[in-house]
């Protein structure tokens, strides 16, 4: 089974509107972290936001917020007030085994392409 | 602060040649990860180091790939001999470890084309 699922086709949003990018995950580890990265056409991977499995509140970073629904195993990214520069590929990723002193790899979804229309 | 530095940014080589990719992690980070991105397989981990020691190399495709981390500020990924199917973007990422947060920060990537 896939650990990270991003099934939306290419997404379009009007400038200044909000958009939600979906992500579901699968793990039996109680201690994990969820991440969103942005990859613009230039190719770099830019960290956007992080949510830990034990965090009580949804993470927010500026215009980015993470709608974390643990029981449903979903971690959707919400971008408010979209800008033209938000056009990019967005990847959801998970890091399991998030215990103190342990390090582990990121498992990525296939990504979602977002296009912001002027 | 400088981010993760990778070199070269672009590499074009012929099949059979040796390719060496280089990475300098963020100062103070004790974990380093090598990922590969292709259209077919997406982003996948090749190997990662913790305190310069390789921890998980299960993603390394085959013996043609090798990675080293001789010190805390430098790592290499070598492909010898290279093949066209190795063409991809190779990312290096570093992390401070859980004491400083679990986030991995990526370098700009090396775009490799093997002809």
Structural class of chain B: mainly beta
Instruction: Spell the H/E element sequence of chain A.
Output: EEEEEEEEEEEE
Structural class of chain A: mainly beta
Radius of gyration of chain A: 14 Å
Q: How many beta-strand runs of chain A?
A: 12
Task: Please state roughly what percent of the residues of chain B sit in beta strands, choosing from under 5%, 5-15%, 15-25%, 25-35%, 35-45% or over 45%.
Answer: over 45%
- How confident is the prediction overall: mean pLDDT of chain A? 93
**Alpha-carbon distance between the two ends of chain A:** 38 Å
Average of the residue pLDDT scores of chain B: 93
Low-confidence stretches of chain A: none
Sequence of secondary-structure elements of chain B: EEEEEEEEEEE
Oligomeric state of the chains in view? heterodimer
Beta content of chain A: over 45%
| Biggest interface pair, counts | A-B, 27 and 29 residues
Describe what you observe in this structure.
The complex is a heterodimer of chains A (118) and B (115). Helices cover 0% and strands 47% of the residues of chain A. Chain A has strands at residues 4-5, 11-14, 19-21, 24-25, 33-39, 46-52, 60-61, 64-69, 74-79, 88-95, 107-108, 112-117. Chain B has 115 residues and is mainly β. The chains are: A mainly beta (118), B mainly beta (115). The interface between A and B is medium-sized, with 27 and 29 residues.
């Amino acid at each position: 089974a896939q650990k990270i699922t991003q099934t939306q086709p290419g997404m379009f949003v009007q400038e200044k509107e909000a958009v939600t990018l979906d992500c579901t995950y699968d793990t039996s580890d109680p201690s994990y972290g969820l991440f969103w990265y942005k990859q613009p056409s230039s190719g770099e991977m830019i960290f956007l936001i992080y949510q830990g499995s034990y965090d009580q509140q949804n993470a927010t970073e500026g215009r980015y917020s993470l709608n974390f629904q643990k029981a449903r195993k979903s971690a959707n990214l919400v971008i408010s007030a979209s800008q033209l520069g938000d056009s990019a590929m967005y990847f959801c990723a998970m890091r399991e085994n998030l215990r103190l002193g342990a390090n582990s790899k990121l498992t990525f979804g296939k990504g979602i392409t977002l296009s912001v229309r002027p | 602060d400088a981010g993760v530095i990778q070199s070269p940014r672009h590499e074009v080589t012929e099949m059979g040649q040796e390719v060496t990719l280089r990475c300098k992690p963020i100062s103070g980070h004790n974990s380093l990860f090598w990922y590969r991105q292709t259209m077919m397989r997406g982003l996948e981990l090749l190997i990662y180091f913790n305190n310069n020691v390789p921890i998980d190399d299960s993603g390394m495709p085959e013996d043609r790939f090798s990675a080293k981390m001789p010190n805390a500020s430098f790592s290499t990924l070598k492909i010898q001999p290279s093949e066209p199917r190795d063409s991809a973007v190779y990312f290096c990422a570093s992390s401070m470890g859980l004491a400083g947060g679990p986030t991995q920060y990526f370098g700009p990537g090396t775009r490799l084309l093997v002809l």
